[in-house]
Amino acid sequence: MRVRATINGEPRVCDVKGSESLLFVLRERLGLPGSKGACEQGECGSCSVLLDGALVCACLVMAVDVEGSEIVTIEGLGGPELHPVQKALVDAGAVQCGFCTPGFVVAAAALLDENPAPSSDEMREALAGNICRCTGYGSILRGLETLVAGR
Prior knowledge:
This protein is an alpha+beta fold. The protein is 35% helix and 15% strand. It contains six helices and five strands; from the N terminus they run E-E-H-E-E-E-H-H-H-H-H. A five-stranded mixed sheet has the order 2-1-5-3-4, with helices on both faces. Strand 1 and strand 2 form a beta hairpin. Helix 3 (84-91) packs across helix 4. The longest helix has 14 residues, at 101-114. The protein is globular, with a radius of gyration of 15 Å.
């Protein structure tokens, strides 16, 4: 099936099979490897993308269902410069192995677009769907708190 969508601001067309996830198509067919596949069950958040402005796990979305949609991946957030969330996490030392980082960045960017000054509890709630096995979450939250405080 041929699917048309706007991905990171660019119109894209891709032939997909009915059983392929959006994550698979982004990574393997469109060459956008930033979103990671780990659990493939929507539990870890490493594949988080924005689909028509909503945060979703790309591993749970069937590629055939995104016809006419607008998708933003980690590659589409920052442009030539780092996105402010990326910079905040780097500055806070919250990037270790980097596997979960794209999902955290997309989730945090979605939160800050909706609520430019979230509380620490709101940050925790918004990031609850993302798992990190390296940082212990403290540095991630500190980076975001510093970003919000500096706005």
